[in-house]
Each structure stands twice: as C-alpha cells, then as structure tokens.
C-alpha cells in the first residue's frame, strides 16, 4: 500500500503487466495537455445533448472504476515523490509534482462530469487540494532553480510538509467521494421497487467491495449491510438474492460489517434462507458463503457472534444437506468451507455433525471427482475430519466410510498447476490428514487399517524427503506425530534407522534432523 496515509482502498489488480500498462497509458500520457483540453467545451454553444452523451457514456460503476484508477496513479506518484525527495533528486521531484498536479485536476474534472450534486464539503476539499498542489509545484520549481545546498536543505522540510498535506487532502477527498457514491447506491437500493435498478445498484456496490477493506468499511458505515438484508427479506427480489448475498459476504470481511449484521439479526435471516427449500441452490450456496466469511477463524471479531450459537444447529443441518445435494464443485466448496469454519467456531458443532452422519456424507462426496474436484475442497473436508477426530465416536465412522483410505490418499496430495495458492492448499491437506491419522490412531482398529494401507512408509517418505512435503515444516511435524502414534501400535513396521531417528528421539530433535536434510553441502 502507498505510504503517506493514502487511502488503503487503492490496490494494484494482479493482471498482466503489459495489459496494465496499456490501460494506464491513456491516463498517464500527456496529462498536462489533457488537463487543459478537459477544461474547454468541445463546441462553442452549450450543447446539452453533448453533455448527456459524455455523462452517459459509462455507467456509474465504470466512472467509479476510472476514478479509482486515477486515484491509484496519484497515490503511487505521491509515494514515488517521497522516495525521490529522500534522495534529493529535485528535477525528478518537480516533474512528478507537475504530473500529480495535472492528474488531480483531471480526476476532479472527470468526477464532476458525471456527478452533478457534490456537497459543499467536497467542493471545499477539491479547492484546498488544487491550491495545495499548485503551492507544491511552485515550491519544487523554486528548488530546481537553485543549486545552493543550504537553501535546498532548509526548503526540503517545507516540501515534505506540503507533500504530507497534499496526501492528507487527497485521501480525505477520495473518502468523501466514495462515501457520497456509497450513499447514492444505498438510496437506490432502499427506495427503488424496480428489480433492474436495484440489481444495477447492487452490482456497483459489489464492484466497490472488491477494491479492499477500506471501501467495505465505508459501505458498512453508510448502512450497506442493513440495506442488503432488507432486500433478502423481500420476496419480490428473490432473483437478486445470490448477488445480494455475495455482496454481503464481501462487506462482512470487516468488523464494521459484522456489527451491522448483528444489529439487523442477519444470522437469523441467513438461517431462514438456508432452511427454506423453495430457494434456489445458488441462493443457498451464497448464503453458505456468508456463513463461511463470518465464521472465519482468521477474523478475531467473529467470536462475539452470540446469535450464531442460537441458530447453529439448523444452520449446520442445512449446510450438511447442501453438501449432500451439491450439483457442482463450487457449491460443495462453499458449503464445506462454512462447515469447516463452524467446527473451529464451537466444539458443539462437531457433535451435531456426528449426529447428522456428516462424516459419511463427506467421505462419500470425496469419491465423486466432479464434486470434490480441487485441493481446496479436500482441504475443507479434511479440516472437518481433523476437528471431528477429537471425538471418540469418530473412529467407527471413519472405518465404516473407508475414511482411512481417503486420509492415505491425501498424504499424496500434490499441486498439478504449481500455483502458489494451490500448493499451499496441498500442504494443508497433507498436514491435516496426518493430524487426523495421529488423533484417530489411538483407536487400535484405525491404527491397524492405516498400517495395512502402508501409511508408515508414506509418512517416513514425507519426513525424509522435503520435496514430497514441499519443504513444509508444518507437514513434517504432523507426519512425525502420526508416525510416532502408529509406531506404538506396530513397532515392527519400521526399520531400525527410522526408529532411531524419527521415533526414539524427542520430537524436536527428529524435526531438526529432517529439516537439516534440506541443506546443500556442495
């Protein structure tokens, strides 16, 4: 993220660098000339049709995307100015300052072209920012006209101070603009009876949520969660439920969104949607995605969801049913991800899953390669199995569902694409399958089944061969723990060297021995 307290909403979308350059080129080329041209009318007369054509050329969403791109360029330029200023490269500082000045004016002109009802506060910030940018340019121009080191040294603090002020005004103006646009979208959603207008507003809102947590906070503070749940409680908007729920899932990645969800009894609404069989599978899947988001173990503020515990049993029941009836891998992934997170959220969830025969359903799903078709899905399944394996009753369920065979297969999980996210998912699958085996092998029947399926040789290979576990330390620790548990049940299954190095020493010593195998002595 850019420094100088710039808006955190701006981030570079990960796309091909040439494509990115082509997109930015029109915003960055000859911006001084463009700034002057944008201030001039195309025709001599004030042609209202021309104005209408210019303002309706893009949708609100397109205009906001253009604004955010321009803002990202400005924030990047300001950061680069700070870097050049630190190195006393005054000529570069001045040329970049001129460019920022022009970009700021262009951004304000572009925004005012499609927005006709800006607030007085916004106009005030626009004026302040333009004035401060002009002052900044004048400062740097004076600096390139002198070579006196003392003057430059004394001026540098003033330039730094002005740069910081420009960044602050810029950040505040962007926040005002985004808040204004969020308010407009909220108004459309709350006041419109038209499915088309509401759909368009929700679509624009969803696009904004994809710009980062800062924008999600703004939307939440402006009542986005309240407005969207209002849609989810009206039958006339049923066709918009999937899109609405997807937007809610994005907003609820921030604490402000979660607070709003609690205030409007959002959990109850989600439970009602999940348990209503008249809703489409797409609606159920998106409701499951919201549940997965709000129960994420990575979010500390989700622990205060008291209303979730009150509705947990019916939510878990509905999610298990969704896993069982899923028509695609994506639907299964969303439902199983929600279940996996819930098993972290509360231990009672594991007991409910056991009563619902969830283990049998999940194990059966894993045999269908059209449903459990990625390492991400297998990661969710093995997470649930690992968390359920703390219950003594799970052992018999695993044996009956051929679960030991599945866990053995998961120890061989490898990425086919080499994609970093997929590789990380494969590591989690290996680690959690080893953890599950270690926990379940306290039952002699499970341990015996694992030994017969040659789990011990595979665990030894994972310990001794770093590439097999993608050099993952967490996989190594889990495999050592599982190996030690199985070795107790079948000491004859290990060669003496394996026993002496991987089982007999303290776990930390075995760990260090295995990690040292990665070192090269060439």
UniProtKB/TrEMBL annotation:
Please provide, in alphabetical order, the Gene Ontology terms of the cellular component aspect for this entry.
apical cortex
Q: Name one GO molecular function term.
A: cytoskeletal anchor activity
SMART domains cross-referenced by the UniProt entry: ARM
Biological processes per GO annotation: apical protein localization; asymmetric cell division; establishment of mitotic spindle orientation; regulation of asymmetric cell division
Residue ranges constituting the Protein inscuteable homologue C-terminal domain according to the UniProt record: 70-522
Q: Which Pfam families match?
A: Insc_C, INSC_LBD
Checking Gene3D superfamilies in the record gives: Inscuteable LGN-binding domain, Leucine-rich Repeat Variant
**Which parts of the sequence belong to the Protein inscuteable homologue LGN-binding domain?**
13-57
Cross-referenced InterPro entries, in alphabetical order?
Answer: ARM-like, ARM-type_fold, Armadillo, Insc_C, INSC_LBD, INSC_LBD_sf, Inscuteable
- From what superkingdom does this record's organism come? Eukaryota
Recorded protein name is INSC
The species this protein belongs to is Eudyptula minor
Taxonomy, top ranks, is: Eukaryota, Metazoa, Chordata, Craniata, Vertebrata
């Amino acid at each position: 993220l850019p420094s100088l307290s710039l808006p955190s909403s701006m981030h570079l979308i990960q796309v091909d660098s040439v494509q990115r350059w082509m997109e930015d080129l029109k915003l960055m080329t000859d911006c001084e000339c463009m700034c002057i041209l944008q201030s001039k009318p195309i025709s001599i007369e004030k042609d209202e049709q021309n104005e209408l054509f210019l303002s309706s050329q893009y949708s609100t969403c397109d205009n906001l995307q253009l604004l955010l791109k321009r803002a990202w360029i400005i924030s990047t330029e300001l950061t680069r100015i700070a870097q050049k200023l630190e190195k006393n490269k005054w000529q570069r500082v001045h040329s970049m300052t001129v460019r920022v000045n022009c970009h700021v004016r262009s951004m304000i002109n572009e925004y005012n072209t499609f927005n006709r009802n800006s607030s007085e506060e916004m106009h005030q910030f626009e004026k302040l920012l333009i004035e401060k940018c002009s002052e900044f340019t004048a400062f740097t121009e004076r600096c390139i006209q002198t070579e006196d080191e003392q003057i430059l040294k004394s001026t540098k603090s003033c330039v730094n101070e002005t740069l910081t002020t420009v960044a602050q005004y810029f950040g505040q103006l962007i926040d005002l603009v985004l808040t204004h646009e969020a308010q407009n979208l909220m108004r459309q959603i709350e006041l419109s009876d038209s499915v088309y207008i509401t759909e368009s507003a929700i679509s624009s809102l969803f696009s904004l949520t994809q710009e980062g947590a800062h924008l999600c906070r703004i939307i939440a503070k402006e009542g986005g969660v309240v407005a969207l749940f209002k849609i989810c409680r009206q039958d006339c908007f049923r066709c918009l439920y999937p899109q609405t729920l997807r937007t809610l899932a994005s907003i609820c990645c921030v604490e402000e969104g979660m607070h709003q969800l609690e205030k409007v009894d959002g959990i109850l609404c989600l439970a009602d949607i999940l348990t209503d069989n008249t809703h489409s599978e797409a609606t159920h899947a998106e409701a499951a995605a919201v549940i997965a988001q709000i129960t994420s173990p990575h979010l500390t503020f989700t622990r205060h969801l008291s209303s979730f515990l009150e509705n947990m049993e019916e939510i878990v029941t509905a999610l298990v049913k969704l896993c069982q009836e899923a028509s695609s891998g994506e639907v299964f992934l969303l439902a199983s991800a929600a279940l996996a997170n819930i098993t972290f959220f509360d231990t009672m969830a594991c007991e409910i899953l056991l009563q619902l025969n969830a283990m049998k359903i999940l194990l059966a799903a894993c045999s269908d390669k059209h449903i459990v078709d990625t390492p991400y899905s297998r990661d969710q399944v093995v997470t649930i199995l690992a968390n359920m394996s703390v219950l003594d009753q799970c052992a018999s369920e695993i044996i009956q569902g051929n679960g030991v065979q599945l866990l053995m297969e998961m120890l061989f999980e490898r990425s086919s694409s080499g994609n970093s996210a997929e590789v990380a998912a494969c590591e989690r699958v290996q680690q959690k399958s080893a953890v599950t085996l270690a926990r379940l092998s306290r039952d002699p029947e499970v341990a015996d089944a694992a030994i017969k399926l040659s789990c011990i040789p595979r665990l030894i290979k994972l310990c001794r061969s770093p590439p097999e576990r993608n050099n993952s330390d967490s996989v190594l620790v889990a495999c050592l723990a599982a190996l030690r548990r199985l070795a107790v049940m079948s000491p004859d299954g290990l060669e003496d060297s394996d026993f002496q190095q991987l089982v007999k020493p303290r776990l930390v010593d075995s760990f260090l021995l295995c990690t040292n195998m990665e070192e090269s002595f060439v």
